[in-house]
Amino acid sequence: MKLxxxxxxxxxxxxxxxxxxxxxxxxxTLVTAHTANTGSMQQCAVPGxxxxxxxxxxxxxxxxxxxxxxxxxxxxxxxxTHRANRVVEEALCNSIIHGFQGYTVRPEFPFAKSxxxxxxxxxxxxxxxxVKNVTLCCEPGVACFPDAITIRGQKHLRDLMEAKExxxxxxxxFLVQRGEAEVFTPADEIDxxxxxxxxxxxxxxxEALAYRTIxxxxxxxxxxxxxxxx
Length: 230
Description:
The protein is of the alpha/beta class. The chain contains three helices and 16 strands. Strand 5 and strand 6 (75-78) form a beta hairpin. The radius of gyration is 18 Å and the shape is globular.
């Protein structure tokens, strides 16, 4: 997926109030940027990190600047959670995700008083797929989710288990935005209930997939599937 252009270099000064970040630009100007990420952003919101911003000319926007990428361990990480679904949708539509080649894609499908990210229609089945954006590594090379307790994420796992019981193919999809990650695992030390539910969901037939991205200042693309350790 192509990223907004041009992206402007800066350094993180601080992130606060969940949706705000103060950024120092290369010329020393201090700007406040919108941060489209509700998580704790552990490892991705450390003062002094290199970041990339976009700027909107929409006069109706409260903040012109948006924080798009941050550099962690020499890799660019996409912290804009609103874009994660679009990256996955593009990959699904281009038949890049193994097991879903040629499926039609319907975003935001209502199910069990929730909205599941995608309903996929294949030749002989329908599937529900929920995306989770992963930006944390619990140890070197091991990506993990979540980075904060997620009641909403727990509910999505219960919804997928219910869908499986009703005859759907059900999938939890971890979009791993850490270029050094070779393995994914649940972050039990952060949200033990999420890890318990994920294992229960997989045992009940919900599929778990983890795909790593390649992120550059110009685009965010699905790279390859990585191993899940439960």
